[in-house]
Design brief:
By secondary structure, the chain is α+β, with helices and mostly antiparallel strands. It has four helices and two strands, in the order H-H-H-E-H-E.
């Protein structure tokens, strides 16, 4: 949307500087840092309001299950928790409990 211009004709003096100064990244470098990017282009649904509302209603009706907690470690045992996580034996989430956090 930052590349859009008002009116029917593109304003190249507005578009080109924004395009040249856009953020850049190497998608390959994200893999090593365990980072992913996900996007959805729903522009084709702008003319199909009934379909868009139907899809949105379906998404909002999903009742996600709470995450499966496999093992809880006190914060003082963080190195043990990390070793357990790296061992490949863990099933579910590995949780570090911090005293006074109010968590279970």
């Amino acid at each position: 949307s930052t590349y859009m211009t008002k009116g029917d004709a593109p304003n190249w003096l507005h578009i080109v500087p924004r395009w040249l100064t856009r953020p850049r990244f190497d998608p390959g470098s994200l893999v090593g840092r365990n980072i992913g990017i996900l996007g959805f282009n729903l522009i084709f649904l702008t003319d199909q309001k009934e379909e868009l509302n139907k899809q949105l209603s379906e998404l909002l009706s999903i009742d996600p299950r709470p995450p499966l907690v496999g093992k809880v470690f006190p914060f003082e045992q963080a190195p043990d928790a990390l070793r357990y996580l790296k061992s490949g034996e863990s099933v579910g989430k590995v949780v570090l409990r911090v005293d006074g956090s109010g968590g279970k």
